[in-house]
From TrEMBL:
Organism listed in the record: Chitinophaga rupis
CDD domains named among the record's database cross-references: NAD_bind_Shikimate_DH
Protein name: Shikimate dehydrogenase
Keyword DNA-binding applies: no
Highest taxon of the lineage: Bacteria
GO BP annotations, alphabetical order: aromatic amino acid family biosynthetic process; chorismate biosynthetic process; shikimate metabolic process
GO cellular component: cytosol
Database matches in Pfam families: Shikimate_dh_N (PF08501)
Keywords: Amino-acid biosynthesis, Aromatic amino acid biosynthesis, Oxidoreductase
Amino acid sequence: MKVYGLIGYPLSHSFSKGFFAEKFQREGITGCVYENFPLTSISELPALLERTDLYGINVTIPYKEAVLPFLDEFSPAAEQIKAVNCICFHAGKRKGFNTDVIGFKRSLLPLIKPHHTHALILGTGGAAKAVMFVLEELNIPFTVVSRSAQPGTVAYEALDAAVIEMHTIIINTSPVGMYPQTDAAPALPYDAITRHHLLYDLIYNPAETLFLQKGAAQGAVTKNGHEMLVLQAEASWEIWNEKQ
């Protein structure tokens, strides 16, 4: 039996286990199982890595950075972002990947139009770094927005109508608006949003955050994070099973 799984803590609301169970059944994949491995400390990881039946691991909060010292190689994205959410075992080596990058890029590309020339990234965490990597690959200039102005970022207070008009892609990587605080939204001048804007929220619960509702009310194209989640999980499966 080939074992795949997810490490993180807590894992009570994880997406991956249900996704892979359904995928294995739907596609007739046998001899494989996907399990949750809730690690209360990263110090529990070495014992898990000793398992000889382990073929691939996904990594979620809070260990996307903590796993780095346990790995031998990294994909270019994982190397630059310094965060890993997929580990592949091959030829005695452990290689780290960042499939958030793959999932975000594959879900964003079909939505990009010629007038989508500049982006605002709301938030500065690990997810924001994955978004930055993709926008750099696509040669789309971006501005990072944080709660207080820092080197390389602007504060929400600096976002006026002129800034919104110029930045026709707005990506929320922050947890603002996530369940159960569904009545919150990033502090933007939403009246300046138009039908030329694309609003993308990495949150998928609720399916339509207040951020997306406000954008849709102005005629903007909107997208939540569910497809990105599915695509990054599929990318993990591709990585674990590709001929290396």
